[in-house]
């Protein structure tokens, strides 16, 4: 599960199934609409918001151009402050490091801070194979884990669930994973949060090893930063004896002054808050305070592949705010599961193919087409990732990857179009023939075409054919003017 949810079909099929779920669409519309409104309100308060976006993009681009230098500075700063640094080329290497640390301390469970990187590498499943339980402590992640579900949103992994569904999950599954839910549990949000707090408290108090990611890593000082809304992260970062942080290599920022920009952009773009309720920073090991053994796993897992793509590398600016998901008309109607990855929505549609490479499987190759190219994602992106540009770029890569062998239907159609457009007489013939056929179909009342054109008319009505083609109309009407 390092890149895609195992067994997920390509986006068109998964999206079609999701569209048939009315409850899912209602849950998504309510949640994304609420987050959009909150974001718009707090962004409107900042007079220099566009300047902040430009600054964030510039800092990220400059850092990526000298990423090797900044990573070496980060490594040196971490080691100087007592942290152990590991380099992981892929998911398997990163998971092996975390499992080895857990085994070295003789534990059979770890507690986790919400982390996209650990989901990306399939850490929970890898630890389970080693007999080590990984307990999610973020409320939404806990809901997903107890429900034997998959996350569907970067910020709110359980966005596809409503309160009644969450209450049923807690009542059914909490007892098998620890402290059971109260017998009189209702779907009141305060009661649900209380049940989660009581369930997690025993895990926090007995855990000896914790696993986190990081929103940012400051190269100057070797400081890791996690922002969150619940406080569960701070419990994981302070109580256990051992902390392992899995950090994507693109998370590095050179200085604290650069971090200042992102701490203004991220909360407004993600949760619609002026600042995150909990911003935790830690720098290596502090004797007598917090974890006394700190490991940092610097994760590549396809990031250098994305960095080599001159158009696509801007995706590595992403600070995981999820603003693009909340404005995307496609995501709002299909949800995150249809994307088949821990990175859903517009950013997932470009990040997954960039990390994995196109031409590997149909599921990944379908993602650049999971968009209307409306541009709403670019307008809200706090670091100005031009997602539509990258989508079009990746579509061309998908086409190039499948050249040779039997041509696809769209390739045959394009070649036919090229043949027809090459000569005026050919086009006139095609136009007349198409018009005669179209009018015959219209008289028969046909609204759906047979395969392969059925792929087009399955989701839209066949438009009526004009009584005469444009060329004929122009010869008559143009001569009158």
UniProtKB/TrEMBL annotation:
Pfam families: Fer4_8, LUD_dom, LutB_C. Keywords: 4Fe-4S, Electron transport, Iron, Iron-sulfur, Metal-binding, Repeat, Transport. It comes from the Bacteria. Residues 403-478 form the Lactate utilization protein B C-terminal domain. PROSITE patterns: 4FE4S_FER_1. GO terms for molecular function: 4 iron, 4 sulfur cluster binding; metal ion binding. GO terms for biological process: lactate metabolic process. Residues 73-299 form the LUD domain. This is L-lactate dehydrogenase complex protein LldF.
